Amino acid sequence: MKTAFERHDHSACADAAMARATDLAVARGLRLTPVRRRVLEILLERHRAFGAYEVLERLAAEGLGKQPPVAYRALEFLVENGLAHRIQRLNAFTACQSAHADGQAPAFLICRECQTVDELDAATLRAELSAAAGQAGFAVERATIEALGLCAACAGRA
Ligand SMILES: [Zn+2]
Ligand SMILES: [Zn+2]
Ligand SMILES: [Zn+2]
């Protein structure tokens, strides 16, 4: 499987994600306004997380709005509709790279050198976490799984 850490034709990723967003908007009757669309395009430029402030600066430079709520609301919209994810550890946002099954948030792999973020299917991990927590009499309702480390390219450079 191709990962975000390998060299690849990223325009294919971005085009596929944008097509998925357009389909989703039609299916759910969502309004993909110019600002929302542009924010998604910015997030899709690379496999990494973007801070809200960085997104805001880009929007301002392009004349799409310079009030913080403009960027925050667009990012919130994308997260709520599964088109982007919030990376807690970086307090930043990354475009979703694939459709996930209902409520199945992926695990995130974050390279601490190049800041590349990749998604990992976390169904098995989550089941194991729930089972282990269940043994302790705890019912997991949500869990954020973010792993920080080095990608192969950065590890090779070190
Ligand atoms: Zn890509
Ligand atoms: Zn995703
Ligand atoms: Zn890296």
Please describe what this structure looks like.
This protein has 158 residues and is of the alpha+beta class. 45% of the residues lie in helices and 13% in strands. It has 2 domains: 10-95, Arc Repressor Mutant, subunit A, CATH 1.10.10; 107-157, Dna Ligase, domain 1 (2-Layer Sandwich), CATH 3.30.1490. The protein is built from 6 helices and 5 strands. The strands form 2 sheets. A 3-stranded mixed beta sheet has the order 4-3-5, with no helix packed on it. A two-stranded antiparallel ribbon has the order 1-2. Helix 3 (52-61) packs across helix 4. The longest helix is centred in the N-terminal third of the chain and has 19 residues, at 10-28. The chain is globular and about 55 Å long. 22% of the residues are buried. Residues 4, 8, 10, 13, 47 line the site of one zinc ion (ZN).
The hetero molecules present are: zinc ion
CATH topology of the largest domain: Arc Repressor Mutant, subunit A
At the fourth level of CATH, the homologous superfamily of the largest domain is Winged helix-like DNA-binding domain superfamily/Winged helix DNA-binding domain
The spatial strand order of the largest sheet comes to 4-3-5
Mean pLDDT: 93
As a whole number of angstroms, the C-alpha radius of gyration is 17 Å
DSSP helix fraction: 40-55%
Query: How many individual β-strands?
Result: 5
Helix and strand content put the structural class at alpha+beta
* Name of the level-1 CATH class of the largest domain: Mainly Alpha
Order of helices and strands: HHHHEEEEHEH
Major sheet: 3 strands, mixed
CATH architecture of the largest domain: Orthogonal Bundle
Approximate shape: globular
Which stretches are poorly predicted, pLDDT < 50 over at least 5 residues?
none
Query: How large a portion of the residues is in β-strands, by DSSP E?
Result: 5-15%
**What is the number of helices?**
6
Query: Distance between termini?
Result: 25 Å
How many structural domains? 2
